[in-house]
């Protein structure tokens, strides 16, 4: 990504990530499709679990955002040995953190479900689902660690195949475990989680093999699994804002899901389906954001900040055009899109309103996600974190409280009464739309300031003397895998 025309190289880097994320989204949609054959309560339960499980997964994304930043910048500066060390320390850190989070999640699963508004049969279905998902957290964390290590090195094709393996297994297993096809028992929502657990386990084994092999841009060396406080500290320093960023997004999603749950099962189910459809756009923009992070990181490592900015502009414009085209199709056939997942007329009607209000703003939020990817690739994860806080906790959640509910407050002394608008669940949809539009304006302005263009790796850092740094192209030639390195 440091030389040559930007659009074709960005496309070569981005398309495997886009395809991988779309496959990941496809298996999420498959979960919803098969769960929808159980009951509306099951759909509502999985809908509520999406933001809650994301709350824990966002920690993995925070750690691996630091991995992409460091690996890509070391690759850009031709320091392969330190890139490999970052991979080993990432795996240590993800295993430690995920084990603690899994234990906490299992210990407090019932209060968490009560907190987000799960009631009656929805609570039962959600509990069956989330118990297994928590057990799968270490596998999920390792999955993200493998993908980010390969992405930072520029090998997005192998990262894509990891997703193909995981998503493919999950999609195949879903009906067997959810509906009890063949000799398998009918497990409902728990079956969806069991399929995810098995798929993540297979992908983890494949990821360990790929990194130990070392022909895919970076190598996992057993000696690098010894704790290195310097690298661990850097991963934590860079990753912590991204983790907080993920928590901000997750808590906001939990809050919004809780708001929606107050309006009944039909809006909750529609919300879950709508968010899954919206996740298609997140899949594309998030993947392009990761490709942008790699391109920005490599160019900042190579001391070419102007090219890093050009990569970001190209990626943002292309992504917004693509998402705009998807939105046009959804707005033309909104009822048909919702009917894929459920045949309840109340849920379909609510889902149509969801799409008509929110979908026109998805392209703007896609642009925000790409710009955040550029910030993370630069290692300036604090800027991406602040953007997430603004878009969710300033421009969305408070607006939802004002638009959706009925309340009033009288200001002392002045005697002035301030009342909410009481638009019902539609107010929540409009709060999302407002947040997307305003956060895009803020993100573009912040990007233009150029405060993110400094590298986060030390110029004077030396590689391990026992394994001197080599140019990435030379390593590729030695290992016989030039194509994946060039990409």
What do these coordinates show?
With 487 residues, the chain is mostly helical. It has two domains: 1-227, no CATH class; 265-454, no CATH class. The protein is built from 19 helices and two strands. It has helices at 6-35, 40-76, 80-107, 109-115, 120-135, 137-153, 156-179, 189-213, 229-261, 265-301, 305-332, 334-339, 345-358, 362-377, 381-394, 397-404, 425-449, 472-479, 482-486, and strands at 408-411, 416-419. The chain has a two-stranded antiparallel sheet. It starts with 5 loop residues before the first helix and ends with a helix. The model is unreliable at 459-487 (pLDDT under 50). One of its GO terms (biological process) is monoatomic ion transport. InterPro entries: MATE_fam, MATE_MdtK, MdtK-like. It is found in: Cell membrane. GO terms for molecular function: antiporter activity; xenobiotic transmembrane transporter activity.
Brief descriptors of the model:
487 residues, mainly alpha, 2% strand, MdtK-like, transport, membrane, disordered C terminus
Q: Secondary-structure map with pairings?
A:
Blueprint: H1 6-35, H2 40-76, H3 80-107, H4 109-115, H5 120-135, H6 137-153, H7 156-179, H8 189-213, H9 229-261, H10 265-301, H11 305-332, H12 334-339, H13 345-358, H14 362-377, H15 381-394, H16 397-404, E1 408-411, E2 416-419, H17 425-449, H18 472-479, H19 482-486
Antiparallel strand pairs: 1-2
Helix pairs in contact: 1-7, 1-10, 2-3, 2-5, 2-6, 2-9, 2-10, 3-5, 3-6, 4-5, 5-8, 6-7, 6-8, 7-8, 9-15, 10-11, 10-13, 10-14, 11-14, 13-17, 14-15, 14-17, 15-17, 16-17
